[in-house]
Write a structure and sequence with these properties.
2 domains, alpha/beta
Length: 290
Amino acid sequence: MTDQLRFDGRVAIVTGAGGGLGRAYTRLLAERGAHVVANDIDRKDENGQTPAARVAAELAEAGGSVLAHDGSIAEPGAGAAVVRTALDAFGRVDILINNAGILRDRSFAKMSDTELSEVHAVHLYGTLAATKAAWPVMREQGYGRVVLTTSVAGLFGNPGQANYASAKSALIGLGRTLAAEGGRNGIRVNLISPGAATNMTAALLPEHMHAAMSPDRVAPMVAYLSHETCEVTGEIFFASAGRYARNMIVETTGYTNHEATLEDIAAQLTRIMDPTGWTVPGEAITLPDL
């Protein structure tokens, strides 16, 4: 039997941890021995509990070490505050799972500036802020695991989600760049493209798919990307309904003509687009400290 992969002594931050995917990630990490700072919005329910406090209390009863941090990751200073919470309580940050998200779906023609900026504030700028705050801590200790959340919409597009898809696509460039920069300091950075029935997505999915698309079926992939034995970096992984796969950015063999004209491009478009013989472009050049 394979030895259980554990997180004893490791400290993790999970944003958007009050429900859905974030709750599943938090629970699995805590069950495997991690100290977890669970971040979510500062909104109390009828019992006076915030989403993060509710998860922390639930997992404390099961013996988990989970500390709640209340506040939207999109708010100014929230990224630094959640990292400071982890440092004050546990003295280090080993894992950062950027999971927080919202939807404001609308066709691009009708989308308001607010609907665009609110989505970018959580998905893109919230991720940037939390990762920027955790980065120097991980560099100093020579170790870190960072997971960013992209999506099928970010990879392939989806009608009515120009705001969401553009933020999720931006995270691909961010994640792959951070993977190249973080390698020398023992930091591994990967992206998860999850498919799950959560409060954010359940209304978009048929009822009969909810159980099959439980967040618990995404959590093992994210937990592995957070583990010290994971040495892959700069990759995108799909996880949904018990299926796990690698998403790839590839380049076709294409067409070469150093004197190509516009008409040549038009005539050779089929060849340019032909996926036969595609390759994965080489890793980014590692630059000195800038």
